[in-house]
Amino acid sequence: APKRQVYDKTFYMLELRKRCTDLQEEVEKMNQEIESVQADNNLYAQLEKRYDSLVKTVRSLEGDLADHNLATDKQRTDTRPEEVHHMFLLMKQQNDQQRADVDQVFLEKRGHEEEIQHMHEEILSLARAAEERLSELHPDQQREYEMLREESHHLNQELGDSRDELDQVSGRLNTLEAHLRNDVMRARSQMLLSKRREVHEILEKLETEARQCSLSIPEQRDLLLAKVKSDNAEIVATEKSNSDIKLMKERLRAAIQEVTSDAKETDMQSDQQKYEILFSKDQEMTSFIDSFDRLQAEEENKLKDKQDNIERLLVNIAKATEMRPDLSPEGHMREIEDELDFKSRQLQNSETTQNRLEAELNKRAGELEKIDSLDVKITQELQQVEAKMEQYNEEMAVKLDKIPELQEEGKARLQRLGARPGDPQGG
C-alpha cells in the first residue's frame, strides 16, 4: 500500500497514544511481577519460619529417640536400674554444667555488647564534640578541614580500588602461570628445544669428525696419538679411583664388623646413656612447662598494656581538634600515624612472642610423648635382655651340670684310643 506522504498532528497524536498504551501495559505487567515477587517473599519468610520450627521439633524428637534407644539398649543388655539411674545423674550433671557454661557465655556476650554500645556512644559523643569544635573554627579552616577529609576519603577509596585491582592481577597471574604449566604446546616446545640441543651437539661432533677427516695423514696421526694419550690417562685415573673405592670398601667393612662386635659389649653402657639422655630431656621439659605459665602471663600483661596504650591513643586521636597553634594539620596527622604504627608494631611483636611460646610448648609436648614412647621401648628391650640372660644362665647351668659326665666320657674315649694300637700285636 502507498505510504502516507504528509504526517500531520493527528498522526503524531495517534502514535503517541499507542506508545502511552504500550507503556501503561508494561507498567501494569511490572506491577503484577512486583506483587508476585512480594507474595513469593512473604511465602518464603513463612516457610523459613516453619522450617526453623520443624528443625527445632526434629532436634527435640532426635533427643527423645536417643534417650529411648539408650533405655532400650540398657534393657536388652540386662542393665540394672541403679546403673541407669547413675548414668542419668551423670548426664544430668553434664547437662547442668553445659547449661551453666552457655549461660556464662551469654552473660559475657551481653557484657561485651554493652561495652561495645558504651564505646559506640563515646565515639558518637567525641564526634559531636569534634563537630562542635569544628563549628567554632574560622570558615577558612573549616573549608580546609573539609577538603582534607574529602581528600583522605578519596585516597582511602583509591587505596581500596588499588588493592582490589592488585588482587585481580595476582589472580590472573596465578591463572596464567597454571595455564602455562599445563599448556601442551609449551611442553612440546620445551621438548623440541631439548631435542634441538641434542641434534646440535651431534652436529658439532659430526663437523669435528669431518674436519678431522679433511686433515692430512700426519695431522690425523698426531690427533689420534693425542686422543689415545688422553684416553689412557682417563683409564689410569679410573683404575686408581676404582682401587681407592675398593680400599675404602674394605675399611668400611672392617669398621662395620668392629662396630658390630663393640655394640654387643656396650649394650648396657648404651642403655645407661639413653637413660641419661631421657633424664636430661625430662628435666628440660619440666622446667619449660613450669615456666610457661609465667611467661604466658607476662606476655598477656604486655599485650594488655599495649591494648591500654592503644585505647589512650584513640582518646588522643578523638581530641585531634585541639591542635597546637604551631603545628599544621598535616604534621599533626603524621604524628598520630607514626605513633599508631609504633603501637601496632609493639602489639604485633607481643602476639608473635605469644605464638612462638605456644608453638614451643606444642613442640616440647610432642618431644615428651616421644620420650615416653622411647622409655616404654627401652623397658621392653631391657625385659628382653633379662629374659635372654636368664636363658643363657639356664643353658650354662645345664652345661656345667654335665661336666662330670663329659669328663668320664673323655676318659673312656682316651682309654679306647690307647687300647687300639695293642690289638694287632695281641692278634
From TrEMBL:
Coiled coil: 13-64, 249-409
GO biological process: intraciliary transport involved in cilium assembly
Molecular function via GO: beta-tubulin binding
GO cellular component annotations of the record: cilium; intraciliary transport particle B
Translocase in keyword set: no
Keywords for this protein: Coiled coil
Signal recorded as keyword: no
Superkingdom to which the source organism belongs: Eukaryota
PANTHER family: INTRAFLAGELLAR TRANSPORT PROTEIN 74 HOMOLOG
Protein name: Uncharacterized protein
Organism in which the protein naturally occurs: Strombidinopsis acuminata
